[in-house]
Structure formats: C-alpha cells, structure tokens
C-alpha cells in the first residue's frame, strides 16, 4: 500500500529513523510509525509552514522590475504517523494564517495535507496533551486514524470526508476489522495526567503581567529558538530579500522566534521586549492567552518538544503548572 | 552536595558573592538545570551530580551579571576552561568570579540519557585547573576510546566532495534556531555576524547555502577559542555533530601553534596575538 | 492571491526634508492598481527596495488626494538607507494599505488639535490634509509641531502654508538651543507649548504622534486640560514584517498593531501591556 501511495505523486512524510524530525520518504522501507516512543525533536510543521521559502522572485534590472510568483507543488502531503499532539497542528496554525488576509503559501500546502494519525501510547514527564484539551487516543485533527493493535496490525478509522476520499483507492489493501478490538486497544492507553487548567493559566497571565515568575525563568533562558522551531504550532516568521544570482533576487519567508532579541527591535534602537524575561513572557502569554483570546485555540498541543529539547530545561508544563498553583493560592 | 550548599550559603551570607550560578533539580532527579541562587535559602536548592551537563560560563557574559559584583559559579573542569578563555579574552574580569570548582567523574551526554558524554572520555581536567574552592573528591576514571577522534580521522580521509556531501546532509537539517550560539559560552558577541544586515554577511534563510554559511563561519570564529564543552552539539535540536568541526579546528590550533583554548590564564589568545615566528605555511 | 507581493511604484518626486529624512511621491505603475487603490487616514504600507527588503511607514499623503501616495522616512536601517539612494524614475515596491485608521467621521463637528514631534508629523500630516480638504466639516483646527532644531523640521513648505491660513492655528516650536538666527517660531518643548496653545477640551479631539518621551510628557498636559483618554488618538509603531497580522512580531498583548492598530485611543493603550 505504501508503494502505491508513493507512486501517486504524493509526498509521504514520516518521522526519520533517528527521531530528529520528519522527512519525505522515497521507499516503503522508510515508513516509520512512532506510536510508542518519544516524539521527534522537531515537528512536521515545516512541510506546511516552511522553514524557508521564496514568496516571489524579482529580476533586478534597472528600469524594469518584474515580479514573478513563487511556484508551488501539487499532490497530497501525507503525514503518516501523526500523534494526536501533532495531528492538530495544521488546523491550529490555520487560524492565524486565515483570520483576515489569507496566506496562500500556508493554505496551498495545508489544503493538500492528509493527516494519518496514530493513537499514542508514549508518555513521559514532559507530555501534557491532556492539559491542553487533547488526548492520546483522540482522532481529532486526523483524516484517517490508526489504532495499533499489536506489533504489525493497525485498525484504520476513517475520520473525515477528505480521509474517506483519499483512502478509497487503497481500500483493497485493508480487511474488515473488529471495532471492539480497536476500542479495547484505545481503552488501554494511559493518558498523561492533567498538569494545569489552561483557563486558569490564561486568566492569571492577563492579570499578572509583571509577575516575578517571568523574571525567574528569563534569568536562565538562553534566548535561542529551539522551543519555537521544534514546536508544532509556533508560526512567527521573518521576511528577507536575498540574491539567487547576479541579476535576480527573491523574497523569502523564514521561521523566526519571539525568543530572539532582534525579533522586536526597532530600527531606532528601541526594543519593546528588551530582555529575556519579557520574551519568555511573550511565549507563554501568546500560547495560553493571546491566541486563545483571539482565535479560541490554545497555541500548544502538549507534545513537550520545547521542554525536552530546551538546553536549560525550561519546562513549559511546569511553568504553566506553577502559574496554575499560584493562581489557586490567591 | 552538603558541602556545596554549605559553602554557597556562606558565600551568599557573608557577601563574598552576589549570586551563585549553579544547578538545581530539573523536571526529574535525572535532570539538572541551571539555577541562579540569590539568597541563603536558594543555596539549599543547589545540587551537583553527573546530570549537571550545562556549561554555566555562558551566563557570565550576560548583562545582568557583568560588572555587578562578584559572581559565584559552580564549574566542572571543562566549564573552567571556558571561564579561563573568557578571562583571557577580557570578557570576564578575573576578580569578578568566584569559582566553586567541582571534581568531576564525567557527566551524561544530554538531558534524560544515562550515557557519558564523549568529551569526558579523555578528560584532562577532572580536577579543575582554576578555582577558589575545590569541592568533591578527585575521581579516577579509566580513559576510554575517544569517539570524536575516530570520526574526525574518518572525515580527514575523505575527499573534498565526500566531506561536502557529509556536511551538506548534516547542515540541511539546521533550522537556524541558533541554540548552538546561545548555549556557547564563547559566543558572546553583542551583535553576532549572523544578525548583521548592513551588509548581510550570512543569509538568514535556513536553506543549504545559508546553513553552510552560518555553521562554517561559526566554526571559524571559534577556532582556537572553542574549549570543547560540547554545549552547541547538545543544544542542537537537529543533532548536527558540531563537535567534529570545532574539535578539528582545535586540533589544528594545537598542532600548528601549540595552543589549547582556556588552559592558561595569562597566555595571550591564539587569534588575538601575532608573533613574527607564527607559521604561515598553512595558508594556501 | 499572493498577499506578500507588492505593487510596483514609480518614484515621481523626491523632497529632502532634513539631512536624513526624505519624502517620496509615488505613482502606481499598473493603471488598474492605481484605479482600485483607496485608503483612509492613518493607514500604513510596506515599502520595498528589491534586494534589500521592506520597511513600514504610514501613508503621509491624504486620502482625499487620489493620484499618488507619499511617504516620508528617516534613514536608520538597511531599507531606509537603500531608499535614500533611490532617484526619480526608479521603481520601488508598495503593499497596502494596512491597519485601521483615524475616525475622521467621528471627528467631524469637533475641534481638532494635532500634536506632533519630529518625523511623527508624517502620519499626522495625512490627517491634517484630510481635515483641511474637508475644512468646513470641522470646528477649530490647531496644529502644534515641534522638532529638536529648525534643521529637523519636516514639511517646511506646508508648515508655512498652514501658518498663513486664517482658518487654522499653527504653532511650530523647536527645543531650546535648536533655534537658528532667523527663527520666528516658538522655543520650548512640545508639552509646554500644548499647555499654552491647545484649545479647550470640550468637544475636542487630539491627534498626537511623536517620540515616546514627547508623548509621555504631553499626555498629562492634555489630561490636565480636560481631554479624556478616549478623545486622544495616537498611532503606535512596532516593528513589523508582514503588516497582515501573521508574522507575530508587532503584537502587544492580544492586539496585532498592524491589524487592530496602528491607531489607538489613549484609553485603549492604557489597557495594553507595556510592550510598545
């Protein structure tokens, strides 16, 4: 089935063998469905929201500028083996890319995605999907949902119309299953415990903007972009021009991160977020308050990547839990 | 651990130091995280064990600590190398730091794992070479295979094309999060060349060309300066083996100029010092 | 549609305002784009020099004047340095108009006082001309403008024109020490001049833009004169890239300055986290 899937002009995206990130696979032997190991260091968002992509080209001949559209591909982008904490990423980011102006670079790829999710039986001290209203057995965000039954066998559940249409040519590879068996498998999954109440965190941030908690975290935060770039839903970007040859250039849309000091620096030298405390506060507030206020979604899926990968072990769930308990104390 | 806490409490209590940059327990006991102890009470949270992987010297050049009185720092031998190099480069004033040197038998290679870091295999500074107070008993560990050296030799044996494709495959994964730079105690430039836009020396795009430019220029800027703490590689979410380049540059510095970064407080820095006897035949 | 793709504009006129500030008059190269273009006072755009990047400035001309747009910029960074090198006849890029605008309709029938400092006159100038082009729909109009020195005053010809009009009151001031031999205007900082020259607060609206320090010290003066926070309008500047509410850098709390702003009342600003 994987072979036929690959032939159809589809880009099949799987987690890479080292768990560093996700990659487009070329052969069925590269298929890797990770449902019981730690999530990859970096999420798959780059296949929808590219880490770098041209948004147009210009020919830089004096007197005669021509703007050319950046080309985009077609064919489905199939995320194979998305844990529930990954499966929702595209729909969450879609809010900001469409709330008014529509970003076609995101949308053209987002529309072509097929999310084949998988029920997740991995859980470690950094997982907190249940705290942000996602759970490891949830097909939410998936078009097709796999439930691991044993080493080799998956129950396949068709979740959306898009998923149904996509899978129809491949139905011949599937056999009629027993719904009770997959229900049983789902029932056995142990959910990570709830670490905080997102509504509490959201409310507290709104009222405690100058709290010393942010200073404590900011004092060890290094200001790198690991958290933002590993995150399945962080979506901030930069726009820069670069050359592609002597006479031609292009404008690029590149990942950017609110933790970088330059992110908000005005050319006058003024910087509204001039220290790491404020920048970390922005990260937390954007995830749990601003995005939720504006778009009705928490900008976090509880995957724990930012915490696992943080070079100084800032654990976002721990921070949120601390906020929650501070909020409960007052 | 008790002697560390006791000492920290004293130093903070009698005003010898303003703060102590140390470690406290992270999300689990098998993970330690950087911790800034400001009060005697904070001193009780300090820990030291094989999970204390961070090189805390990275904090010494931060604005909030620079020239704000004496800063205490908990440091392993490899971290002390960075402190020494920072003093050599006039980034840290010697009298502004109080080094709590830790005898160290090696640390783990990263958070949440239990294998020993490669840098510890042939460590020459298990007992730090500079400190104000030394804590812990000296640890004897048998020298192990130097994993990096073998890989470097393998890379050295490659043709230019093979080397290119090896690094191309690695750098392609770079996302330009600059965790390498931010975690590096020697990457203290107030404005990094990667952030300069007039002119833009390094393309900020995370494509192969931009990634090569960034990673190679960073390696150049660290040659003869990198102390081999391995923090860049540990911080890298794309797991690019940055130690291989930095170590290689260090080997060249050693071979050509008999210089090892961060070992001698009074030694002039390699790139900051010109000697008419300097060999130039490596410039081709 | 590619929301990031700019329209091509021809630079048809360049005015040197000060040693480091220029005003460009721009015309759309595409006739359809020119015909369809419309904006409101207070909106901004993204101006590009291809190969260098984009920079954000307000549209400094008035929406009542259709054939062209004007922008004024001070040379500070990469793009503005490149823009400075542009000559008449050259092509640059423009995306816009973006953001909200000054509530011109709500200001009708009221006294309007404009307070600006330095290059902050650019966004205010757009509203000034908008109001002056519809002069009979507003009551008393007062313009208070200050700069560090006479050399830093922008739109000098227009300041003269405004001063010579009998239907508006124009007060121009320079900081003490910033005057030159022939200076006939006021000498003093903007807040002090506002205290002297502003109209009474009743049925009045204030439009203020300038360096943060000027705004900081003028606000209490306006409040003292009786201006309510909701009657004081300003335009916020934050670093922007997309101008479209996507790239995430201009947000102050849950407000995207580029979409929900840049025009805010002082009442709204007071409710925002202090990150602007």
For the largest interface, the chains and their residue counts are: A-C, 51 and 42 residues
Amino-to-carboxy terminus distance of chain B? 53 Å
* Domains of chain B, number: 2
Low-confidence stretches of chain B: none
Fraction of residues in H or I helices of chain B: 25-40%
Low-confidence blocks of residues of chain A: none
Q: Which radius of gyration of chain A do the C-alpha atoms yield?
A: 21 Å
Q: SSE string of chain B, helix = H, strand = E? A: HEEHEHEEHHHHHH
Number of strands of chain B: 5
Binned strand content of chain A = 15-25%
Question: Would you tell me the overall average pLDDT of chain B?
Answer: 92
Classification by helices and strands of chain B: alpha/beta
* Distance separating the two termini of chain A: 57 Å
Average of the residue pLDDT scores of chain A: 92
Folded structure, characterized:
The complex is a heterotrimer of chains A (330), B (284) and C (276). Chain A is built from twelve helices and ten strands. In chain A, helix 3 runs antiparallel to helix 4. In chain A, strand 3 and strand 4 form a beta hairpin. In chain A, 33% of the residues lie in helices and 18% in strands. Chain A is flat and about 65 Å long. Chain B folds into two domains: 2-135, no CATH class; 147-257, no CATH class. Chain B has helices spanning 2-13, 40-43, 77-88, 147-156, 160-171, 179-183, 208-222, 231-235, 242-257; strands spanning 19-25, 32-37, 71-75, 97-102, 133-135. In chain B, a hairpin with a 6-residue loop joins strand 1 and strand 2 (32-37). The mean pLDDT of chain B is 92. By secondary structure, chain B is of the alpha/beta class. The radius of gyration of chain B is 19 Å and the shape is globular. The N and C termini of chain B lie far apart (53 Å). The longest helix of chain B has 16 residues, at 242-257. Chain C is of the alpha/beta class. Chain C has two domains: 7-98, Elongation Factor Tu (Ef-tu), domain 3 (Beta Barrel); 104-235, Nucleotide-binding domain of ferredoxin-NADP reductase (FNR) module (Rossmann fold). In chain C, helix 6 packs parallel to helix 7. The longest helix of chain C is centred in the C-terminal third of the chain and has 14 residues, at 212-225. Chain C is globular and about 50 Å long. Chains in contact: A-B, A-C, B-C. The interface between B and C is small, with 3 and 3 residues.
């Amino acid at each position: 089935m994987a072979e036929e899937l690959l032939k159809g002009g589809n880009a099949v995206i799987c987690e890479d063998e080292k768990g560093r990130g996700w990659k487009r696979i070329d052969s069925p032997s590269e298929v890797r469905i990770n449902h019981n190991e730690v999530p990859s260091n970096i999420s798959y968002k780059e296949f929808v929201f590219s880490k770098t992509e041209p948004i147009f080209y210009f020919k830089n001949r004096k007197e005669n500028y021509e703007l050319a559209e950046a080309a985009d591909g077609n064919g489905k982008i199939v995320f194979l083996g998305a844990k529930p904490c990954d499966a929702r990423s595209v729909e969450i980011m879609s809010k900001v890319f469409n709330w008014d102006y529509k970003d076609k670079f995101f949308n053209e790829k987002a529309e072509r995605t097929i999310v084949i999710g998988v029920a997740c039986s991995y859980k470690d001290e950094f997982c907190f999907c249940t705290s942000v209203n996602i759970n490891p057995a949830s097909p939410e965000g998936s078009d097709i949902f796999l439930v691991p039954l044993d080493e080799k066998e998956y129950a396949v559940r068709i979740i959306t119309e898009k998923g149904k249409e996509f899978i129809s040519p491949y139905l011949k590879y599937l056999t009629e299953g027993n719904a009770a068996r997959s229900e049983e498998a789902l029932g056995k999954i142990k959910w990570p415990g709830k670490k905080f109440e997102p509504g509490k965190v959201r409310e507290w941030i709104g009222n405690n903007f100058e709290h010393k908690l942010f200073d404590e975290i900011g004092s060890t935060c290094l200001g790198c972009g690991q958290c933002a770039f590993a995150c399945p839903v962080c979506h901030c970007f930069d726009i820069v021009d670069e050359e592609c040859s002597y006479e031609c250039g292009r404008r690029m849309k590149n990942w950017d991160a609110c933790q970088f000091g330059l992110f908000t620096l005005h050319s006058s030298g003024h910087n509204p977020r001039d220290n790491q405390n404020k920048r970390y506060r922005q990260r937390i507030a954007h995830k749990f308050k601003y995005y939720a206020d504006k778009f009705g979604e928490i900008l976090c899926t509880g995957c724990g990547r930012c915490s696992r990968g943080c070079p100084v072990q800032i654990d976002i769930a721990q921070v949120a839990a601390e906020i929650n308990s501070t909020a409960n104390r007052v | 651990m008790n002697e560390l806490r006791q000492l920290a409490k004293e130093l903070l209590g009698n005003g010898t130091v303003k703060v102590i940059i140390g470690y406290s327990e992270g999300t689990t006991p098998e993970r330690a995280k950087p911790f800034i102890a400001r009060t005697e009470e904070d001193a009780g949270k300090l820990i030291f064990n094989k999970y204390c992987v961070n090189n805390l010297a990275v904090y010494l050049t931060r604005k909030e600590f620079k020239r704000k009185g004496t800063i205490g720092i908990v440091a392993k031998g490899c971290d002390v190398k960075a402190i020494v190099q920072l003093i050599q480069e006039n980034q840290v004033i010697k009298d502004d730091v109080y080094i709590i040197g830790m005898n160290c038998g090696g640390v783990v290679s990263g958070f949440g794992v239990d294998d020993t870091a490669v840098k510890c295999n042939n460590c020459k500074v298990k007992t730090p070479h500079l400190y104000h107070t030394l804590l812990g008993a000296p640890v004897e560990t048998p020298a192990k295979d130097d994993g990096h050296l073998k890989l470097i030799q393998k890379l050295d044996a490659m043709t230019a094309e093979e080397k290119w494709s090896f690094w191309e495959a690695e750098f392609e994964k770079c996302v330009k999060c600059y965790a390498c730079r931010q975690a590096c105690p020697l990457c203290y430039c107030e404005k990094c060349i990667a952030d300069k836009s007039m002119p833009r020396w390094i393309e900020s795009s995370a494509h192969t060309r931009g990634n090569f430019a960034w990673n190679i220029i960073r390696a150049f800027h660290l040659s003869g300066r990198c102390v081999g703490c391995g923090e860049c590689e540990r911080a890298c979410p794309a797991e690019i083996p940055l130690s291989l380049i930095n170590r290689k540059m260090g080997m060249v510095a050693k071979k050509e100029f008999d210089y090892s970064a961060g070992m001698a407080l009074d030694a002039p820095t390699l790139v900051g010092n010109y000697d008419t006897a300097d060999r130039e035949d490596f410039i081709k | 549609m590619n929301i990031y793709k700019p329209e091509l504009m021809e630079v048809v006129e360049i005015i040197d305002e000060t040693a480091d500030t220029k005003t460009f008059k721009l015309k759309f190269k595409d006739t359809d784009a020119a015909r369809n273009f419309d904006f409101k006072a207070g909106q901004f755009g993204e101006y590009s020099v291809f190969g260098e990047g984009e920079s954000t400035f307000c549209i400094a001309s008035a929406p009542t004047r259709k054939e062209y747009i004007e922008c004024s910029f001070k040379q500070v960074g990469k793009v503005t340095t490149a823009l400075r090198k542009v000559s008449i006849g050259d092509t640059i890029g423009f995306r816009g108009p973006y953001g909200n605008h000054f509530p011109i309709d709500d200001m009708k029938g009221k006294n309007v006082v404009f307070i600006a400092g330095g290059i902050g006159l650019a966004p205010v100038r757009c509203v000034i001309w908008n109001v002056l082009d519809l002069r009979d729909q507003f009551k008393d109009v007062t313009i208070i403008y200050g700069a560090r020195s006479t050399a830093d005053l922008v739109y000098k010809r227009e300041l003269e024109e405004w001063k010579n009009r009998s239907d508006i009151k124009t007060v121009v001031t320079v900081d003490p020490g910033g005057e030159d031999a022939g200076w006939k205007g006021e000498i003093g900082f903007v807040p002090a001049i506002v205290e002297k020259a502003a109209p009474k607060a009743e049925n009045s609206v204030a439009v203020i833009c300038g360096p943060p320090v000027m705004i900081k010290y003028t606000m209490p003066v306006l409040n003292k004169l009786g201006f309510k926070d909701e009657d004081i309008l300003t335009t916020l500047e934050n670093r922007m890239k997309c101008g479209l509410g996507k790239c995430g850098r201009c947000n102050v709390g849950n407000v995207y300055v580029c979409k929900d702003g840049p025009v805010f009342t002082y009442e709204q600003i007071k409710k925002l986290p202090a990150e602007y």
